[in-house]
Each structure stands twice: as structure tokens, then as C-alpha cells.
Amino acid sequence: MRFILIFLLPFSCLSQKMFVENSQVSFFSSAPLEDISALSNKLEGVVDFSSGTFFFRIPINTFIFPSSLMQKHFNEKYMESETYTISSFKGNFKEKVNIYENQLLTIHADGVLNMHGINKEVSIKTDLLINNNVPKFSSEFNVILKDFSIKIPKIVRMNIADTILVNVSGNLVVK
Fold first, then answer.
1. CATH of the domain at 45
2. Which of 61, 94, 132, 175 is deepest in the core (most CB within 10 A)?
3. 73-116: per-residue pLDDT in tens?
4. How many independent structural domains does the chain possess?
5. In a domain, 15, yes or no
6. DSSP 95
7. Cα–Cα distance between 128 and 67 in angstroms, integer?
């Protein structure tokens, strides 16, 4: 029995599954009449560096806006967060990452972004900074509202951009 444990121990130590911690997801809409921004620190996710797979999700109603009215409209009228409660991104990356080596690299995450009940294949560039075995990730990408059937009424067309800039960052830790 001891032989089996000694034999399996190195394989369990080689697992490179890491979980999101200290995350921030923000978005910004710049339109002729108004700039809109929101922030959430409720991103959840797991990255398996040995297989190159990942899964991230965020509850839509966790975004905080400067104005409670903006937040209400975002959840009720645009994102319909009672119906579409979660947005997720699931996929893989081809780059081999050694989390035991201090480095800064860019990986290309290919997968399916689900938002507002719509799945869309996307490729997102992610910067990965590894320092003392702690990977920190950051990504910036655009979301085109019509790709996810998010409709903006004509009356506020000049207040909300058609394309929203999204920033995602956080740490990855072993749990």
C-alpha cells in the first residue's frame, strides 16, 4: 500500500489546476452622450495548465455601477439577469505554461463565450505574469452587443455603445 501512495504522490503534485482569486471584471461603454462603466469582483473559474483547459463564469447581477438606475436598467432591460443569470467562457489554450518559472507571456484562449443565452466562439489574448508560482492574468477584449442579441432602444442609442470594452484580471491559486 505504501508503494502505491509513493507512486501516486508525484502525479497528484503535478496537477496544475488553479482557481480564480482576487478577480475584477469591468466594462466600459463610450457613447456620444454618456460613458458607462461597471465592476464586479465575483468572477469564478478554474484553469488546468496541464491540459490547457479553462472555465470562467460570472453572475450578471454582481456588476456595480456608479448609479443605481444604470444598474437597474442593465439588469432588467438589457441583460435580463433574472433569465440569463450567468455569463461564462469555456475553452482551451495551446501554449504550454510552466507555473514554476517566473515569466511574462501571452496566451491565446479559444473557446465559447456565453452571454445573454447566446454562445459565440471567440479568441481572447491573455497576458499571464507568473511570479513565485502565482499566475496573474489580464485580458482586454470587445463584446459586440448585437452578437449576443442585446437590444438597445432607439431612445438611448446615443447613450450606449454598440461595442463594449471588457477587462478581466485576477490571480490563480491552488485550493
1. 2.40.128.110
2. 61
3. 999 999 999 999 999 999 999 999 999 999 999 999 999 999 99
4. 1
5. no
6. S
7. 33
